């Protein structure tokens, strides 16, 4: 049931097979099921997964290749094969989830939270350059706030800037919701020219030139609503005017720049507050699916693993909505884990009965042969 959106509803023009120079011991379908099983069962290493594929009855029957998989072949596949096909599956599931999941904030438009998440790497991962001799990778993710799902992903070394990925993640007419790290006056102009919307928190001490003030409700959390140019003239000032909303909540002042003139100031504040949803997703994804417990060291392999984690989350989102009319929850994940354990126990019992029956049959045949002699 969980895998139905892939194996029953997915039709690809390209046959989903891993590519490589060595004969396949694990097809792409095997690789995909292994990655989903890895995240769903919270395995902490590739070795733990391989042990489960060899010893767990459910995994041996339903996940592992028919002839099993050797350690060297498994890691060679993870680090060299399947990335193109995984991306295809991920994009398919994003569309499937878009149809299955309700739109929560339709009155606010198409909202996409954009953020980067650092991934601790090991020293042997030379491509994952960060600073101070440490190694980190960074996942740049676009998160569909309206449906509560990831929708785009890019992977770089840890020191890569985040702002250039806004153009890659955000489509025309959508609203990117971003924290202060994305503040860039040149990019604000660029996004407006590209007809892309944004709601971005800015630094409180940012210089601004006020063009006009909008009326503010004295009983609102909003204390300022202005049309401004941001930055210092001749240095870093925006060429195009934009809207700057200031509001106070939980003892803190927030300044949010936007080109959404159709929203009330309170709605602009609400949109920025919804940015927290991507942080909630990151926390849940890391904690319950163990996506950052590395089983690969190459950039290719890490992207394979991350896509496997995103695919697992999307499958859970579709499953929980279609089967239970509710969002993803750890209780449903545990329920699925118990179901897997029960199926493994059933499989073990069936094998035990089958072996017992075979032994009994062999014993009867031996007795018959003995009686004839």
3D architecture notes:
With 373 residues, the chain is α+β, with helices and mostly antiparallel strands. Among the domains are: 4-87 and 300-331, no CATH class; 193-274, no CATH class. It has helices spanning 4-7, 28-40, 46-55, 57-62, 71-80, 83-100, 164-169, 185-193, 265-273, 276-289, 299-324, 330-372; strands spanning 111-120, 136-144, 149-157, 175-178, 197-201, 208-213, 222-230, 242-249, 252-258. Helix 2 (28-40) packs across helix 11 (299-324). The termini are far apart. The mean pLDDT is 89.
Describe this protein with a few key phrases.
alpha+beta, single chain, nine-stranded mixed sheet, 9 strands, 373 residues
Ranges with pLDDT <50 over ≥5 residues? none
Mean pLDDT: 89
Classify the secondary structure makeup into a structural class: alpha+beta
Characterize the biggest β-sheet. 9 strands, mixed
Global Rg:
26 Å
Helix content: 40-55%
Shape label = elongated
As a percent range, the share of strand residues is 15-25%
Task: Give the helix tally.
Answer: 12
Distance between the termini: 55 Å
> How many strands?
9
H/E element sequence: HHHHHHEEEHEHEEEEEHHHH
Main sheet strand line-up:
3-2-1-4-5-9-8-7-6
């Amino acid at each position: 049931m969980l895998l139905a959106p892939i194996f029953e509803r997915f039709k690809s023009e390209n046959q989903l097979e891993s590519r490589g120079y060595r004969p396949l011991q694990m097809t792409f379908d095997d690789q995909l099921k292994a990655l989903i099983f890895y995240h769903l069962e919270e395995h902490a290493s590739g070795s733990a997964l391989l042990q489960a594929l060899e010893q767990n009855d459910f995994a041996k029957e339903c996940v592992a290749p028919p002839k099993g998989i050797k350690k060297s072949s498994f890691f060679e596949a993870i680090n060299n094969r399947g990335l193109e096909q995984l991306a295809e599956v991920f994009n398919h599931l994003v569309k499937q989830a878009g149809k299955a999941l309700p739109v929560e904030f339709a009155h606010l438009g198409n909202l996409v939270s954009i953020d980067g998440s650092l991934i601790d790497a090991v020293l042997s991962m030379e491509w994952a350059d960060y600073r101070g001799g440490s190694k980190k990778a960074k996942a740049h993710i676009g998160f569909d706030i309206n449906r509560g799902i990831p929708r785009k992903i890019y992977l770089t070394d840890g020191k890569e800037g985040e702002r250039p990925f806004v153009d890659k993640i955000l489509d025309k007419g959508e609203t990117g919701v971003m924290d202060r790290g994305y503040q860039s006056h040149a990019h604000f102009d660029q996004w407006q020219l590209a007809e892309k919307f944004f709601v971005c928190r800015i630094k409180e001490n940012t210089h601004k030139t006020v063009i006009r003030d909008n009326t503010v409700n004295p009983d609102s959390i909003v204390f300022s609503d202005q049309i401004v140019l941001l930055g210092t003239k001749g240095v870093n000032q925006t060429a195009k005017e934009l809207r700057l909303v200031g509001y106070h909540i939980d003892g803190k002042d927030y300044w949010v720049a936007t080109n959404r003139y159709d929203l009330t100031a309170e709605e602009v504040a609400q949109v920025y507050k919804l940015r927290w949803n991507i942080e909630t997703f990151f926390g849940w994804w890391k904690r319950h699916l163990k996506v950052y417990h590395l089983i690969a060291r190459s950039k290719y392999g890490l992207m394979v693993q991350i896509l496997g984690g995103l695919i697992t989350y999307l499958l859970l989102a579709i499953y929980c909505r279609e089967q239970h009319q509710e969002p993803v929850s750890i209780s449903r994940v545990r329920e699925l884990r118990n179901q897997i354990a029960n199926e493994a126990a059933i499989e073990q019992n069936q094998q035990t009965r089958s072996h017992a029956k075979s032994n009994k049959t062999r014993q009867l045949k031996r007795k018959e042969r003995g009686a004839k002699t």
